[in-house]
Specification:
The complex is a heterotrimer of chains A (about 220), B (about 220) and C (about 250). Chain A is mainly alpha-helical and about 220 residues long. Chain A has 9 helices and no strands. The chains are: A mainly alpha (about 220), B mainly alpha (about 220), C alpha/beta (about 250).
């Protein structure tokens, strides 16, 4: 024993940790946006009249949701180049995380779509909107509001999932934490600071989301 | 006969390593789920029925762990525990992190389920003269467990997926074994796909079994 | 003088700073059927819940068959939980929202208290539960779960659950308020039968006609106090206080 806490080494590299945190947040933001598009399309495919669309969408969701994210990350990083798709590690990770997010968001949107009262679409059609117009102006905006809390939770877990990017040496928070740990042996300080940064970031995001949620809420 | 150099040949050559890895994955996931559920039940009970000091401390534990990525928990527990004098193998350190992670999910789930029960249930049970332990065992727990079941099954599949993170600290579970095989024969497509398929099958089986159990315990209406 | 089976003396109860019961006195003798009427917020439900110790109270005493319940001594010391549980079983309570245990069959709902509180063997408990379920007309639904029963049926099972414990006093808390109108009578008829057999009852109700028919005495509560008390004929036909007259007018008796 005889371990005395000394945060000096960690503070010296604190800007690295901060930049890692920033990159993680950026990756999560890009992925949730891309994931939302994928999720929206797949959710509508799941409710589609055509069996083929429904099959494809549900295969995608089931396959991705039941496969570990780390396996997906390694697969795209090591296998895609062999198939002629050359991506940098950041790009590769972003694509993977987006596809991963898309599967979870599909479920979110599908649930939100099912929860919408039937009358809304019919009321839209009744005032002369086409199916597409009704989707764009009525169904989707209301659904997005209803899905907002679930979207927020998904964003927070995506942000935590960006830690896995360290496995393919993407320089985000966990990557730097490990580096500082190995270089300085200030084990306790490093991991304490790193996890506190994650906790604080998650807490702030959650607080921000609650604020937006209140503003977005349709008053009744 | 299967020719050398093909996927099936390589698979056959590495069959024992893969089986070992599969066994480790199943073992670590199962232990994490069982131990995490036991610890998580305590967490949930304290969150609902604890005094304010214990509730406050457990709340910090839960929020801290849930705000931290599992991967960080695994790495921290691997590097950190030995530093403070607890000598653990990589397997044990990784398992410890998964149990902690699992306990917070089970705990929050149980808390939510118990608190969602209508107050009238407790009141009606009190009114016929049951004591609190009896109310909990006969009235609250059976309803809370039914409510908590779907999320618990989801947690179980999460634990299987999270067990892959142990490959990074050198636990020879299915993913690390696959990576070792790939480093020998460079068949990354085939073996990553194969590993992914196995994980898929494990999780899919858990999900199906869970749905079947849910149907069996569902209340008639 | 006969000892009252239920005696409430100078009962005071506060929620935070608001005093909802401001000194209530009431007593019931064995076989009495007493209805409490009054507008919402008058404290009538709170009074009932105090008798079953679902609410704490700050001053006053409640005695059942001469035994002080919930608290003891002049210092108003709270009793132990096991003690309170035993005393609760002396009264039977039926709730507005039925509160049947959804994971148990109708029969098991009734036998739970018999086997766990009264420690009866399962056979005896089943026989008693079966008898009471028959009395409320639910024999053919013994193995149904609450989710499979209508509101009126659930409430009848809830009544069986309470009376099967053989309580000294039955408490009914607006038991028909959550029911569809067409299901109200089946429940009221069950209660009437029990009343005619001499069961001691204290009811909170909005059903004025029912209160008129079933009660030996009616109590009108207003702002945490008993404003008027008497036989139903007097109370409903010749209200003394202005407030009761207004209340009866607004409730279309």
């Amino acid at each position: 024993m005889g371990y005395t806490l000394n945060f000096g080494a960690v503070w010296r590299d604190f800007d690295l940790l901060l930049s890692g945190l920033g990159l993680g947040l950026g990756l999560a933001i890009v992925s949730i946006f891309a994931g939302c598009w994928i999720g929206l399309v797949a959710a509508f495919a799941m409710n589609s009249k055509h069996v083929l669309w429904r099959r494809v969408a549900s295969c995608y969701v089931t396959a991705i949701r039941n496969t570990p994210l780390l396996v997906l990350i390694l697969f795209s990083f090591f296998v895609l180049p062999r198939l002629g798709i050359r991506l940098g590690k950041v790009e590769s990770f972003t694509v993977t995380l987006s596809i991963y997010a898309g599967a979870y968001l599909t479920e979110v949107f599908r649930g939100a779509l099912l929860a919408l009262p039937r009358g809304l679409r019919e009321a839209g059609l009744a005032i002369g909107l086409t199916e597409w117009q009704a989707k764009i102006w009525i169904t989707i905006p209301i659904m997005l509001r209803n899905a907002f809390p679930a979207l927020g939770n998904n964003f927070i877990s995506l942000f935590k999932d960006t830690s896995l990017a360290a496995a393919i040496a993407v320089p985000e928070l966990t990557f730097y934490a490990r580096q500082i740990n190995v270089n300085t042996f200030r084990v306790i300080e490093t991991w304490l600071v790193a996890s506190l940064m994650y906790v604080a970031a998650c807490y702030l995001i959650a607080a921000g989301l609650r604020f937006f949620e209140r503003r977005l809420a349709i008053s009744r | 006969m299967v020719e050398p150099g093909t996927f099936l040949y390589e698979l056959w050559v590495s069959r024992w390593a893969i089986l070992d890895g599969f066994g480790t994955t199943v073992l670590v996931s199962m232990l994490a789920i069982v131990l995490g559920t036991i610890l998580g039940t305590l967490v949930g009970l304290v969150l609902v029925y604890g005094g304010w000091v214990s509730r406050f401390l457990v709340r910090i534990y839960v929020d801290f762990v849930r705000g931290t990525p599992v991967f960080v928990l695994v790495l921290a527990s691997f590097y950190l525990l030995s530093q403070i004098g607890i000598q653990l193998t990589a397997f044990q350190a990784g398992l410890f992190a998964l149990v902690v992670f699992c306990s917070t999910h089970v705990g929050e789930n149980l808390r939510g389920a118990l608190q969602s029960l209508p107050r009238g249930q407790t009141e009606a049970a009190k009114a016929i003269g049951l004591t609190f332990p009896q109310i909990f065992v006969y009235v609250l727990a059976p309803q809370a467990l039914r409510q908590a079941l779907p999320a618990w099954i989801n947690t179980a599949t999460e634990m299987v997926k999270a067990s892959t993170l142990l490959s990074v600290i050198g636990v020879a579970e299915l993913l690390l074994v696959s990576r070792q095989i790939i480093s020998r024969n460079f068949m990354s497509l085939e073996f990553y796909f194969f590993a992914g398929l196995i994980y898929f099958l494990i999780d899919y089986a858990i999900e199906r079994a869970g749905k079947a159990v849910e149907r069996r315990v569902a209340l008639p209406s | 003088m006969v000892q009252p089976i239920l005696q409430i003396e100078n009962l005071h109860k506060k929620f935070k700073d608001v005093e909802v019961l401001k000194g209530v006195d009431l007593s019931l003798e064995t076989g009495d059927v007493v209805s409490i009427i009054g507008s919402s917020g008058s404290g009538k439900t709170t009074l009932l819940r105090c008798v079953n110790m679902l609410e704490e109270f700050h001053q006053g005493r409640i005695l059942i068959d001469g035994e002080e319940i919930g608290y003891s001594g002049p210092r108003h010391k709270a009793r132990k939980e096991s003690e309170i549980a035993r005393q609760r079983a002396m009264t039977g309570m039926v709730f507005q929202q039925f509160n049947l245990f959804p994971h148990m069959t109708a029969l098991r709902n009734v036998t739970l208290g018999l086997t766990k509180v009264k420690k009866m063997p399962a056979e005896e408990a089943n026989a008693i539960a079966g008898k009471w379920l028959a009395r409320v007309g639910m024999s053919d639904r013994c193995d149904h779960h609450p989710g499979q029963l209508s509101g009126g049926q659930q409430q009848r099972v809830a009544i069986a659950r309470a009376v099967a414990m053989n309580p000294k006093v039955m408490l009914f808390d607006e038991v028909t308020s959550a029911l569809d109108p067409e299901l109200v009578n089946e429940v009221l008829n069950v209660i009437k039968d029990l009343a005619n057999e001499g069961m001691t009852m204290l009811l909170v109700t909005h059903e004025m006609k029912f209160a008129f028919e079933v009660s030996d005495r009616v109590v009108f509560m207003n702002q945490g106090r008993i404003e008027e008390e008497g036989p139903p004929e007097e109370l409903f036909r010749k209200p003394k206080s202005q407030r009761l007259a207004e209340f009866l007018k607004s409730s279309k008796f």
